[in-house]
Amino acid sequence: MVAQFPPGPGTAPLPRVPAAPKRTGYVVKACGLVAVAVLSGLVWYLARHKPAPPMPPPGTRAKEFSFAMAEGPVVSSNCAANSTGQVKKFFTDHPCQRLARALYNTAYGNDQVLVSVMVVTTADSSEAQQLKAIADRDGTGNINDLLKDGTAHIPSAPNKLSEGKYASKVTGNEVTIVLSEFYDGHSDDTVLGRVDNEALNLGSQLG
C-alpha cells in the first residue's frame, strides 16, 4: 500500500483549468461571410467595369424602319418611255443604260407607308449629276413609279406617290430616286423624310 500524505502547510490544490471551448462553428461562419463579401465585391466590380458595347462606325446609326418589297423589281433599258417632262427629254438626249423600279411597304407606329425606289444607271457620273439636278427641281417631271404606270395594283395604296415626299442621291453613275406617302392620307413630312433617307439605301438591292 502506497502511503498518502496530506498536502503540506501552505500548499493549495491546483485549480482545474477549463477546456478551451470549441470554435469550429465560428470559424466556418467567418469564412462564409468573407466568401460572400468577396463574391459581392467581384460582382460589383464586374458590373461597374463591364466592357462597353461596340460603337457603330462613324456616320452610321441604328435603322428605324423595316422595308418589305410589295412589287418588283421591274427592269427596263428605256428610261424615256417611263418618264415625264424635262426628265423624259433628258433621257431622249442621253439614253440610260438601265432602270430598276420597286415598291416597298414600311410602317411608323400604326400608320403604313408606301415607298417607291427607282435606280437609274447612266453612261457616267456626269450624266448622273445632271439627271439628279433636273429631277430635284419642282415641275420638271420624274420617272414613273410602278403605281403611276399601272404596273402595280395595291389595295388602299396612295393615289399619287408623286405628291408625297421625295429624295434622291448619286452614287457613281447611278441615281436613286425615292418617293413615299402614307396609305391613309396621314401627313407627316418629318417622318417621311426619315423613311426616304433609309429607303435610299434600298437602291443597292435593285442595282
Jot down its keywords.
207 residues; alpha+beta; five-stranded antiparallel sheet; 5 helices; globular
Describe the structure.
- The mean pLDDT is 82.
- The termini are far apart.
- 29% of the residues lie in helices and 23% in strands.
- The protein has a five-stranded antiparallel sheet with strand order 1-2-3-5-4.
- The chain is globular.
- The chain has 207 residues and is of the alpha+beta class.
- It has five helices and five strands, in the order H-E-H-E-E-H-E-E-H-H.
Helix/strand order, N-terminal first? HEHEEHEEHH
How does the overall form come out from the CA principal axes?
globular
Number of helices: 5
Rg, alpha carbons:
40 Å
* Spans where pLDDT lies below 50 across 5 or more residues: none
The pLDDT mean sits at: 82
Category from helices, strands and their pairing: alpha+beta
Give a summary of the structure in a few sentences.
The protein is built from five helices and five strands, in the order αβαββαββαα. It is an alpha+beta fold and 207 residues long.
SSE layout:
Layout (H helix, E strand, L loop, with lengths): L23 H25 L19 E9 L8 H9 L4 E11 L2 E11 L3 H12 L28 E7 L2 E9 L6 H11 L3 H4 L1
Antiparallel strand pairs: 1-2, 2-3, 3-5, 4-5
